[in-house]
Amino acid sequence: MCLSGRSPCEKESKMANIIDFRFKVKNESDDKIFKIEIAWQTLVKDAIPTIKEKMATLYKQAPDVIKLYVDDPRGVAKELEPDDMISRHFNIDYIEEGLILIYPQ
Fewer CB within 10 Å, N side or C side of the chain? Predict the structure, then answer.
């Protein structure tokens, strides 16, 4: 159990590669960005239920089908395929700059 700020807890989390990924539903404002802790090497298809659960909590419902895209300020967002790792287009050292867009279908 982690009780203090930056200490062994942060180290344990990094060692286990549990990352706070940032998410936003397409066309929502930036103040609606939310974080979900997901293991770095989780497949997109395995992360979808966790993402939908968080969406249901925040928005009182979640669409049956969602697609994930990596936000790219330099161009078109890149779709994450079901068998991609959720971390595919991210640098672990700059994860706080990354954003995953959720496209409800």
Answer: N
pTM over 0.85: no
Residues 47-56: pLDDT tens digits? 999 999 999 9
List b or e across 1-40, with b for residues whose CB sees 16 or more CB atoms inside 10 angstroms. Answer: eeeeeeeeeeeeeeeeeebebbbbbeeeeeeeebebebeb
Strand order in the sheet with 34-39: 34-39, 18-25, 100-104, 66-70, 78-80
Q: Provide the CATH topology of domain 22-104.
A: Ubiquitin-like (UB roll) (3.10.20)
Whose CA is closest to 77, among 62, 85, 88? 88
Q: Tell me the C-alpha distance between 76 and 69, whole Å.
A: 9
**Rounded-to-integer distance, Cα 77 and Cα 63, Å:** 20
